[in-house]
Every structure is written in C-alpha cells, then in structure tokens.
Amino acid sequence: MPEQHYEPEPALAGAAAGGAVDLDVVEAGTPERRPQGPDGSGPRGKPRSLWSDAWRDLRRNPVFLVSALVILFLVLISLWPSAITSGSPLTCDLSKAQEGSRAGHPFGFDGQGCDVYTRTVYGARTSVAVGVLATLGVAVLGSVLGALAGFLGGVWDSVLSRVTDVFFAIPVVLGGLVLLSVVTSDTVWPVIGFIVLLGWPQISRIARSAVITARQNDYVQAARALGASRSRLVLRHIAPNAVAPVIVVATIALGTYIALEATLSYLGVGLKPPSVSWGIDISAASPYIRNAPHALLWPSGALAVTVLAFIMLGDAVRDALDPKLR
Asked: How far apart are CA 135 and CA 257, in angstroms?
C-alpha cells in the first residue's frame, strides 16, 4: 500500500519551521464572531436605559394607548375647539331652555338655552389648562424644595419637613372655600395658584425620598470621591435617577387637579361666569336634573372621562418606570 504524506497548511508549516505566521491568512480563514445576546439568538446591541425600557413597555400597554388617545383628543379640542363646533358657548336662547337634542345640537340645551355640546367642548380648554399648568407649578416647586432637602439634609430638611406637615393639615376643599372666596378674578390663575400652594408638599416628599435613595448609590459616592461639585452631583447623577417617581405622581395628580377645579367651581369659589367650566355647568344644571338631565350628564361624563384618562395614564407610567413591577 503506497505511503501517504500530508502537507500542513502554508501558514502552520511556516510556524512549525520557526517562521512567522501569516495572520492575514489565519484571520481570513476564521469566521468573524459577533457578540451574541443573552439567549445566543442574535447580536447583542447597546444596553437600554430605564427610559427606553419604559417607552417600549408603554407602547405595548393598551391602557396607555387608550388613555393617551383620549388625552390627545382633549388637548386638540382645547387648542382648536372650533374644529368640532361652530357655535359660541356664550350664545344662549331662553326660548330653547331645557330642550333635548335636535339637529345641530346633539346634547340639547341647558336652563339658560345655551348649547350643551358647545359648552362641553369649550369646557375642556379650562380643565386641561388648569390641570397642566397646576401640575407644572406643583412639580417644579415641589421637586426643587424636596431635592434640596434630601441632598442638603440637616436643618434645611427639618424645617421643610415641618412646613410640609403644616400644609398637609389643611383640608383642600375647606382651604379653597376660605382662600378663593375673597378673590374676584374670573380667570384660571387664582385656582392654579391655590392648587400649587397646597399641592407642592406631596411632590416635595416624593422628591426628597427619591434624592435620599439616589444619594446613597455607589456611583454617586464614586463621583463625590473623584471631586465632583455639588451642582454636578445633583444635575448629572442624582436628578436623572430621582425624577421618575416625581413624573409618576405628577401624572396621576393631574387628573385630581382637574377634578378639584371642577369641585371648587361647583361650590362657587373657583371659576365664575362668564368663564366656561364643567364645574360651572354641573352646578347650574343640578337644580333641574329631573326636567333636563342631559344638561348635567354630558359635562359630568366629560369630566369623569378626562379624570379617568389621566389616572390611567399615570398608572401605566408608574408600571413602566418602576423596576420592581417588571
């Protein structure tokens, strides 16, 4: 049987003889291996942040999608109410008082002969404006004071804690009756100022707790050891990781502030005519609910749907931003 001889590959043969290995040849013959994901199914991409994970979860949450669509519709009709109604909320005809729905007036008329549909549409502008502006004011004021108390500690934290205790002891509705009863303005600003005045302690407590928790993390201690200034610690390391609880609480509170404005307007100390508000319409329609229930049900239904949409949005955001619920 003839003797067979096996020749090594050129690159390996050169190495065996003491020569240099041609790395280009070896690398060309070796398939490139890319980093694999945790399950080995595909390439491993860049790690996602908390916000990207939250947005991915929100897009898959039907509660978030439904509430976001409702809120988007409310915002659009608040900015452009004339897009879905051509009438004026202040145009009334006493000869049509308490009449039911008819062509061009699907919600009927109230006790003053005003079109309920038009007033309901224009009432969304007031509710959304009060809710959004009050929430922004509460979030900014409460976050700043709470973050300073949690980061500085000491006397500042003690003083702010006692001040928040005082504000928590004030009943909201009773405080509104006392403070707003002396205001004669018919704009939304007194109501917004009152909500900010009594709403900031809640956000302040949340921000303080979040900052204290974030301040104890290892990356903050490492940045402090490397000589980072206080402003850099707060803005670059603590605030981005402490803002999530504030966003969740503020989103849920937005619906509560809308309901609070309607309550104060219903009691006569919030917005006043000729302002258009769901609370004003509910208060005006209450005496004749038996004769014209539609004048009460439509603004009440719009208020309930709006508050529920913001609360559902807050719940969805909370579930997406809270890692413990994943």
From this structure: 8
**pLDDT digits over 100-126, tens only?**
888 888 999 998 899 999 999 999 999
The mean predicted confidence, pLDDT, of the chain is: 82
Strand partners, 105: 102
Is the pLDDT score of 222 beyond 60?
A: yes
Contact in structure between 314 and 304 (CB atoms under 8 Å): no
Residue 296 CB burial class (10 angstroms; 0-12, 13-18, ≥19): buried
Structure confidence at residue 295 as a pLDDT band (50, 70, 90): very high
Average pLDDT over residues 78-103: 88
Rounded CA separation 233/239 (Å):
8
pTM score of the predicted model:
0.78
Assess whether pLDDT exceeds 80 at residue 308: yes
Q: 207 and 246 in contact (C-beta within 8 Å)?
A: yes
Mean pLDDT of 155-183: 89
Query: For residues 8 and 225, what is the distance between their CA atoms, to the nearest angstrom?
Result: 58
Number of neighbouring beta carbons within 10 Å of residue 45: 8
On whether the CB atoms of residues 218 and 154 are closer than 8 A, the answer is: no
